[in-house]
Amino acid sequence: MKHVRLVHAGREQWGVVADDGATVRLASGKAVAWDEATLLPPVTPGARIFALGLNYADHSAELGFKAPDKPLVFLKGVNTLVAHGGTSYRPRDAHQMHPECELVAIIGQTARNVAEADALSCVGGYTIACDYAVREYLENYYRPNLRVKNRDALTPLGPWVVDAADIADPQALKLSTTINGVEVQTGSTAAMVFPIARLIAYLSEMLTLEPGDMILTGTPHGVAFVDEDDEVICDVESIGRLVNRVELLP
Hints:
This protein is mainly beta. It has helices spanning 57-62, 146-149, 196-206, and strands at residues 2-8, 11-17, 23-26, 31-33, 38-40, 49-53, 72-76, 81-83, 87-90, 97-98, 101-107, 123-130, 133-134, 155-163, 174-179, 182-188, 214-216, 231-236, 240-248. The chain folds into two domains: 1-39, Roll (SH3 type barrels), CATH 2.30.30; 41-248, Fumarylacetoacetase-like, C-terminal domain (Fumarylacetoacetate hydrolase, domain 2), CATH 3.90.850. It contains three helices and 19 strands. The chain is globular, with a radius of gyration of 17 Å. The chain starts with a strand and ends with a strand.
């Protein structure tokens, strides 16, 4: 199933996308048309957002780095999130802002000291992130700073969460990004340096992962810069298409 977070009739709630994709079924059983609701980023309140740097060797290579020996993990705030169909704002003094299509794993059960062999059983679902980076502000690829990775609305997320049971193999999904219909990024989750199961095992050694926690798993090669009025679409096989527009920061 596909789960969406939305506002309908002034109330924030979760719903399930109908099989034909035309409506969303609320917990009350009511069917709501898409234009009757406002989509929100599909994140559980209080969830932590972990993100990976340089988790695809081809992306590391195009930036002039070798793949890391250990996961490069940083945290993102919920202020960074914006829903499917939303707008991200490019700073006026920046001209090298680029989209990064990422598969997001969402923890479905409490996990502590989980073995890699058992780790995928802790995943409740998957969604898509477009984790924009502003290269002018980047001080160190190994330690992404706040100005790059924690700016308001620079991480579109969604459009929904697909149940983990509906994804046969999360390490065999094609990813791609287009800007105004032109493909600028393509890859496969098979190329991750640290696959999802290893990331969960690694994180759960240090802290307890809770339901709703998110892991943005990194992006493949393909650096292309966005401009005002651009439409960016991140596509992940079996998950869907995340659409976003870029405007200049007011």
